[in-house]
Design a protein that fits this description.
The complex is a heterodimer of chains A (270) and B (275).
Chain A: H1 4-11, E1 19-30, E2 33-44, E3 48-52, H2 59-66, E4 74-79, H3 84-87, E5 94-97, H4 111-123, H5 131-143, H6 159-171, E6 177-181, H7 189-206, E7 209-213, H8 217-223, E8 226-231, E9 233-238, H9 240-245, H10 247-253
Parallel strand pairs in A: 3-7, 3-8, 5-6, 6-7
Antiparallel strand pairs in A: 1-2, 1-4, 8-9
Chain B: H1 5-30, H2 34-54, H3 58-79, H4 84-106, H5 113-118, H6 126-145, H7 147-155, H8 157-162, H9 167-189, H10 194-208, H11 212-237, H12 241-259, H13 265-274
Helix pairs in contact in B: 1-6, 1-9, 1-10, 1-11, 2-3, 2-4, 2-9, 2-10, 3-4, 3-9, 6-9, 9-10, 10-11, 10-12, 11-12
The chains are: A alpha/beta (270), B mainly alpha (275).
Chain lengths: 270, 275
C-alpha cells in the first residue's frame, strides 16, 4: 500500500524513458542569500549523474534539497513524480549517503546493526524486523562485499569498508535512486577505485539511478553518464566529454585542468 | 533489614528506578546527553519550588516543569541559534535561581529541602512507588517500541532524517521521558546525584562491550547491583542512601574501566608480572 505512488510511477508507460528526477528553476536561499540559483535538469532512469563544482558551490545543498531536507524558495522538484512533501513518505525508495557520517567510532553497533538501521523506515514505526528485513540486510552486506564482517563493530572497519557499510545501508531499502555526497572523499586511491567499480556494478545489476556529488572531476569523468557542473548556478550539463572539454569549466573552477586534457582517464587522489 | 516496611519500599522502588535509569542511560551516553540530564535534574529544583509555592504536589510540578525545560533545551539547540550546552547553562541556572527565590518569598522553610537535593528513599510511600512504576513502565514501553529509531538517530541523525524517520518526534519524546524519569528518581538519589544514575551504568557497559545488546545488559546489571548494594551499605553504616549508591556506581565504573578490553590494562599488568 505504501509503495503505490512509486509503483504507479514505474508502471505508467512501459516504453518511454522515465524521468526519475526533475528539477526546474530551483532557487534556494540561506540567511537571505541565494546558495542555488536557477538550477534545472532532468534525470532519466538508470543514469549515472555526476554533480561537480568547487568547494562551497552548493552541491550538497542541492542533494539535500532534492531529498526534502532543505526548503526551497522557487521552482519545482519532482522525484519519482512526487513533490518533496509527497516524497516524505516514500523516502525508503531513495538511498542517501551523506558527505560525512559523523558517528562515534566507539558506538557499540556491528556492521549488521548499521545496515539494519537503513531498514528502519521500511519496517515502519512500532514494528520489529522480520525475516525479509534480515534477509535484505544480509543480501545488501554481501552485495558490497562485506560478507563475513557482519558482526564486526563498525568502528573497527577501515575507512573504505565503512563507506561500503554505509552504501549497504543505503541499498537495503527498496532503493531505486542513490544519492551519494562525496562518498569517496578521504579514501586512498585503491579504495576509491574499488568503491567506484562496486558502485557501477551495483548500478548495472539493480538498474539504479545514481546521483554522485564530488569535487573530484577525475573520478566522475571516468564513470558518469552525464555531468552537471554547478557553482551556485548551473553552468554545464551534458556527457562528460562535452562538459570537460568546455572552456566554461575552467571559469567555474578558476583554474586549469591540464590533467583533463586527455579523456580523463588519469586518476589522481583528491 | 527486610522486615521493616520502609526497607521493603526502598528496595522495590530502588529496583524499579535502577532498571529504568540503566536503560535510559544507554541513550544518554550514546547521544551525549549527560549534561542535558544534569540540567534537567537541577531544573527540577525550580519545579519543586513552584509546586511548594503553589500548593501543588512538588513532584507533579517538577515533572511538568522539567519536561518544559527539556523541550526548551531541545528546541533552542535544534534551531541552532544557541549551542546545546549554552542553552542548558542558561536554563538550568535560571530554573534553580527561580527555585531559591520562590522558596524564600513564600517562606516554606519548614520543608526539608535537603531531602529533595540529596534524596530520601527511606521516606518513600507505596503511592510514590506506584507513580515510579507507572512512569518507568511508560518510559520502557516507549524505548522498546522506538528502539530502532532511537538507535539510528543516536548513531547518525542526518541519515536518519533523510530516510524519513520521525526524528523530531523521537527526540522530543525521549527528552520528556528522560525528564519524567529524572523526577521520579529524585526521591532515590536527589536532584544533585540523579545524573549519576543516568550516566554511570551505561558508561560502565561501554567500557566492557562493543555491541549494544551487551552494553545494555551490563548497564542493567551495574545499575541494579549498585542500587541494591548501595541501599544495603547505607542501612548498615547509617549514611545517606543516594550518596552511597552513587559511590558504588563509581566503584563499578572504575572496575569496568580497569578490566575494559579497550584499554588492555589487565593484559599489560599480567605481562608485567609474567616477565
Amino acid at each position: 500500500m505504501r509503495e503505490c505512488r512509486v509503483r504507479e510511477f514505474f508502471s505508467d508507460g512501459e516504453d518511454r524513458s522515465r524521468k526519475v528526477i526533475e528539477v526546474h528553476d530551483l532557487w534556494v536561499y540561506r540567511d537571505g542569500h541565494p546558495v542555488l540559483e536557477e538550477i534545472s535538469f532532468d534525470l532519466e532512469e538508470g543514469t549515472f549523474l555526476g554533480i561537480i563544482g568547487p568547494n562551497g558551490a552548493g552541491k550538497s545543498t542541492l542533494l539535500r534539497t532534492i531529498l526534502g531536507l532543505i526548503p526551497f524558495s522557487r521552482g519545482t522538484i519532482k522525484v519519482l513524480g512526487m513533490s518533496p512533501r509527497e516524497l516524505k513518505r516514500e523516502l525508503h525508495h531513495i538511498g542517501y549517503m551523506p558527505q560525512q557520517v559523523l558517528f562515534d567510532p566507539r558506538f557499540p553497533v556491528s556492521v549488521y546493526d548499521v545496515v539494519m538501521m537503513g531498514r528502519a523506515c521500511c519496517i515502519g514505526p512500532l514494528r520489529f524486523p522480520r525475516r525479509r528485513d534480515r534477509e535484505a540486510v544480509l543480501d545488501s552486506i554481501e552485495a558490497v562485499g562485506l560478507k563475513g564482517l557482519e558482526k564486526r563493530p563498525i568502528g573497527e572497519l577501515s575507512g573504505g569498508q565503512q563507506k561500503r557499510a554505509f552504501l549497504a545501508r543505503a541499498l537495503c531499502l527498496e532503493t531505486s535512486i542513490l544519492l551519494l555526497d562525496e562518498p569517496t572523499a578521504g579514501l586512498d586511491l585503491d579504495s576509491q577505485v574499488d568503491f567506484m567499480d562496486l558502485l557501477v556494478r551495483l548500478k548495472e545489476g539493480k538498474g539504479l539511478t545514481v546521483v554522485f556529488v564530488s569535487h573530484d572531476v577525475n573520478v566522475l569523468a571516468r564513470f558518469a553518464d552525464e555531468l552537471v557542473c554547478i557553482n551556485r548556478t548551473m553552468h554545464l550539463h551534458g556527457p562528460p566529454r562535452e562538459v570537460l572539454g568546455s572552456e566554461r569549466l575552467k571559469e567555474v573552477y578558476r583554474c586549469e585542468f591540464d590533467f583533463l586534457a586527455g579523456t580523463g582517464a588519469e586518476r589522481r587522489p583528491s | 533489614m527486610l522486615s521493616y516496611g520502609f526497607a521493603q519500599r526502598a528496595l522495590v522502588g530502588g529496583a524499579i528506578l535502577a532498571a529504568v535509569c540503566s536503560l535510559v542511560s544507554f541513550f544518554v551516553v550514546a547521544r551525549r546527553l549527560a549534561f542535558v540530564g544534569m540540567g534537567i535534574s537541577h531544573a527540577a529544583f525550580g519545579g519543586v519550588a513552584i509546586g511548594l509555592a503553589g500548593g501543588v504536589n512538588p513532584y507533579l510540578a517538577a515533572g511538568g516543569f522539567c519536561s518544559l525545560v527539556a523541550v526548551g533545551i531541545g528546541w533552542m539547540s535544534r534551531k541552532g541559534r544557541v549551542h546545546e550546552d549554552t542553552a542548558i547553562g542558561i536554563l538550568f541556572a535560571s530554573a534553580m535561581a527561580l527555585g531559591v527565590v520562590l522558596v524564600r518569598l513564600t517562606g516554606v522553610y519548614n520543608i526539608d529541602l535537603m531531602s529533595y537535593l540529596f534524596g530520601s528513599i527511606l521516606a518513600l510511600r507505596w503511592d510514590d512507588i506506584w507513580i515510579m512504576g507507572a512512569v518507568s513502565a511508560l518510559t520502557m514501553v516507549f524505548i522498546v517500541l522506538f528502539f530502532k529509531e532511537l538507535l539510528f538517530v543516536s548513531f547518525d541523525q542526518e541519515t536518519a532524517t533523510a530516510s524519513g524517520l520521525p526524528v523530531r518526534f523521537v527526540e522530543y519524546t525521549f527528552l520528556v521521558t528522560l525528564s519524567l524519569t529524572i523526577v521520579v528518581s529524585i526521591k532515590l538519589v536527589g536532584i544533585i546525584l540523579v545524573s549519576a544514575l543516568l550516566v554511570v551504568p551505561s558508561a560502565a557497559g561501554w567500557q566492557l562491550f562493543r555491541n549494544y545488546r551487551w552494553v545494555i545488559l551490563a548497564s542493567e546489571t551495574v545499575g541494579l547491583s549498585s542500587v541494591l548494594i548501595g541501599l544495603y551499605l547505607s542501612h548498615r553504616f547509617d549514611v545517606a542512601s543516594g550518596a552511597t549508591i552513587v559511590l558504588v556506581l563509581f566503584g563499578f565504573f572504575l572496575v569496568s574501566a580497569l578490566i575494559s578490553p579497550r584499554r588492555e590494562y589487565m593484559r599489560r599488568l599480567l605481562n608485567a608480572f609474567s616477565r
